[in-house]
Write a structure and sequence with these properties.
It contains 20 helices and 7 strands. It is α/β, with parallel strands linked by helices. The protein is elongated and about 95 Å long. The termini are far apart.
Length: about 425
């Protein structure tokens, strides 16, 4: 019977697991928990192919518990009840370990129904998810579980598994591997060990005795496999966040890298929208022309479409990454919104209210309004904020040349006028 290479080479001990040293190295918390044999309810969070299922299987073997595996995309509460019924037949004297894959696909009622089965200790739950559990798993489950995050495996770690996989898959056949084949697979799988092993199986399945596995074949087998991207998932928002933070941090190399990841995934819309946000939020008044330039680049990108759209978007990214930065506009509007939401509004001063209607003067509208354009420098002192907020300051000039120039100008104008 056919058995995938990834299953044939699956580690049997914690020391054989590639990657996840932060969790599984001697002295690490998860390792200590497993070695103690006292297994709590846990959630394994991380991308596919990084060892979540493997570790659950090792836990079951090491603690002599019967392992039940369910996938939330197809399972129901009745499946869990069937496991309980089986426990009542004494088939699992040491208790049962339920590995529930993709728990995020259980709705709220289904997740809450798990509680009665895990609270009495008859079942130990290890749930896995590729989505952030704090967004997709309900608090009742989260509060009863410990979350462990599994991360993409480093290429150097994956290379160990690739080496073993080639040895097992070739089974003594004389096959030549071109230089760089192992490294290409380890790099190209995007931290997914299962993808790497799948690539090895693909490359070795059709190679004859005395044949050669070429670097070109390895590149094709691993093509685009490094792209972990879901427009509705964590990867989408993580890349957008990294793009913005790289531009904010004035790192043009990192910024263009994350743009490339978005564009390689075909996500032109998200990239364009985020760049417009960055122009206002992070470059802001330090270089206010950036907004119009970025808007022009975005418009050009949509007119061109991919792949040519990459050029104006790269221009926008590099312009902003190397531009001076100011978040003064963002800070000012957030501070003003905070006051408004707390009810700090008060009545608008009468001299600022609309006076362009019959009876406005009778109501005192606009009577004492001072028209700034009638005065030197087009400015005259008068109150604009409501009385309750008259001494409030929301805007603080940024320490960049543009805003400091404006600050100096107004200090000079207002100082002369007030003399």
């Amino acid at each position: 019977m056919y058995q995938p290479l990834a299953d044939r080479i699956r580690p049997q001990t914690l020391d054989d697991v590639v990657g996840q040293r932060a969790l599984l190295a001697q002295g690490a918390l998860l390792r200590r928990i497993i070695d103690s044999g006292n297994i709590p309810n846990m959630i394994f969070y991380g991308p596919s192919g990084v060892g979540k299922t493997t570790v659950a299987g090792i836990i079951a073997r090491q603690t002599a518990r019967k392992l039940y595996r369910l996938n939330a995309t197809t399972a129901s509460i009745s499946d869990i009840k069937a496991i309980i019924d089986e426990l009542d037949t004494f088939l699992a004297p040491e208790g049962a370990l339920l590995y529930l894959d993709e728990i995020q696909y259980f709705n709220k009622k289904q997740q809450q129904s798990l509680l009665e089965f895990i609270e009495n200790g008859r079942i130990t739950l290890i749930a896995s998810t590729t989505e952030n559990p704090y967004f997709y798993i309900y608090n009742a489950i989260l509060s009863r579980c410990t979350v462990f995050e599994f991360t993409p495996v480093e290429p150097s770690e994956i290379a160990r598994a690739v080496e073993r996989a080639f040895a097992l898959a070739l089974e003594g056949r004389r096959v030549t591997l071109e230089d760089g084949v192992r490294e290409q697979i380890a790099r190209g799988c995007g931290g997914d060990v299962r993808k790497a092993l799948g690539a090895v199986e693909l490359l070795t399945s059709g190679v004859p005795e005395g044949g050669t596995v070429t670097l070109a074949d390895a590149t094709q087998a691993a093509q685009r496999s490094g792209m972990r991207y879901d427009r509705d998932g964590d990867g989408h928002y993580d890349i957008l966040s990294a793009l913005q933070k790289s531009i904010r941090g004035s790192d043009p190399d990192a910024a263009v890298h994350y743009l490339a990841r978005l564009l390689e995934a075909g996500d032109l819309i998200s990239a364009a929208r985020r760049l417009l946000v960055i122009a206002a939020e992070d470059v802001g008044l330090a270089y206010p022309q950036a907004m119009s330039i970025v808007k022009a680049c975005v418009d050009s990108a949509f007119q061109l479409g991919l792949p040519e759209a990459r050029i104006p978007l790269a221009e926008a990214v590099l312009l902003m990454a190397t531009a001076p930065k100011s978040n003064s506009a963002n800070a000012a509007i957030d501070a003003a919104l905070a006051d408004v939401r707390q009810g700090k509004t008060d009545d608008i001063p009468a001299h600022l209210k609309d006076a362009h209607y019959s009876g406005a003067a009778h109501l005192g509208r606009g009577k004492t309004y001072v028209y700034p354009h009638d005065y030197p420098f087009h400015w005259a002192p008068q109150q604009y904020l409501p009385d309750a907020l008259r001494d409030t300051h929301y805007y603080a000039y940024g320490d960049n040349k543009t805003e400091q120039t404006a600050k100096s100008y107004w200090e000079r104008v207002k100082g002369q006028t007030n003399r």
